[in-house]
Task: structure prediction
Amino acid sequence: MNKPFELEPFETTLADKVAAVSQLLAEIARNHAPAAFANSLGAEDMVLTDLILRQGLAIEIFSLDTGRLPQETYTLMQDVQQHYGLKLRLYYPRHDLIEAYTRDHGINAFFESIELRRACCHARKVEPLARALAGKRAWITGLRAEQSATREALPRREFDEANGLEKFNPLADWSEREVWAYLRNHDVPYNALHDQHYPSIGCAPCTRAITVGEDLRAGRWWWENPDTKECGLHRIPVVVSAEVSESVADVNTQSSGRSQNEDTL
Ligand code: SF4
Result:
């Protein structure tokens, strides 16, 4: 008689976590519609993409195309379309904000100061995110507590008061190992830069590979002091040009005072 297959402790934990996240996503789709998943196309977000699409859940999946993404990220968008038959909904920056920013400060001004970097993130990420979340009752992110010290207390569910909607971080308690075990086990497409020591991928000019011993997010805005780096859980004051300032006011009016999370995705 064959012995029953027994899962190793790690696999049991991962199986349990996958079941819990699947259940949570189904509950979000059922009880918090319309809900949206802000897909950064990072490894964690590909886990959530796979789980949402496998279950056929009514959760909108969107990404922000900042206009400065690495080619590998665009390749992944195409891979996602081929693998799942999903045409990602993409939100783009407002051309008037980008034109104002580059006219006033230059094409790569984000290297010059924290303020200009945050202003760029605002025009290319935060403002489009606010439009993407308008009218939604809940949104989902792929954030994990383990990613950095600032995310240690990350809850799986919170009320995003600034945005006025529920926010879910289903992978908050997942380890990096579990993320990659899921991706490998389910043959999920992922960004080729992950195989080149880019654990966290954002815009091309603001992301570099990390070396052994560095924080997972050390490659993001690497020229800035770690103490000044802000993550998606922090609100950041951003005002540089009049156009950007006006857009902030517009967005805040339309979205009940959305926070300016410069690294939400
Ligand atoms: S990550 Fe860099 S290029 Fe992308 S929006 Fe922020 S400052 Fe601009």
Q: What stands out?
A: The chain has one domain: 9-254. Residues 9-31 form the longest helix (23 residues). Residues 1-5, 231-242, 244-264 have pLDDT under 50 and may be disordered.
